[in-house]
């Protein structure tokens, strides 16, 4: 079969890869049930849904007609080289435990810039901005808390789209943050900071 839609081909592969990774990593945790979810329940279900969705999107890549897959997936080698160089510098200049707050912030920014450059080397802006938003969420969840980290995730992800409207994005981030706190902190009882650690 011939690939006729490059966007669907790469999207399907990405969904399947992420779904398989979620399911593989969650094997080390207890599953639980739908009523009392264990740590593995949500990533396993999400991973399965991503694999099914990815398979459907991948199938479409062979039946619809748009582009050759590499034509819609630009690659910028200079960003890969820059990201690798910054990543190596960040790795060998790790901050000691007793270092000040400014040193930790500087090192985190250097690491984040390296990851951003590696993501930005592949694909369109909407793809790497969303991926980077998830990485930022993981970095800031503990120090900033769930509410601010969720807001940051929504704002960065929305920046990757074609239109960015402050009002809609602010409402969406507030609703998603409230839902996240209600579902994960109060509903499931997960031990997460709701607000920055300095405020609690």
The secondary structure category is mainly alpha
Strand content: under 5%
The rounded distance between the terminal residues' Cα atoms is 58 Å
Q: Kindly report the average pLDDT value.
A: 76
Report the count of strand segments: 0
- Oligomer type: single chain
Q: What's the overall geometry?
A: globular
Written as H for each helix and E for each strand, in order along the chain, the element string is HHHHHH
Strand count, sense and barrel status of the largest sheet are:
none
List the keywords.
single chain; 200 residues; mainly alpha; 66% helix; globular
How would you sum up this structure in a few lines?
The protein is mainly α and 200 residues long.
Could you outline the blueprint of secondary structure elements for this entry?
Elements: H1 6-25, H2 41-60, H3 77-92, H4 101-120, H5 125-159, H6 166-187
Helix pairs in contact: 1-2, 3-4, 4-5, 5-6
Overall description:
This protein is mainly α and 200 residues long. It is built from six helices and no strands. The chain starts with 5 loop residues before the first helix and ends in a 13-residue tail after the last helix. The model has no long low-confidence stretch (mean pLDDT 76).
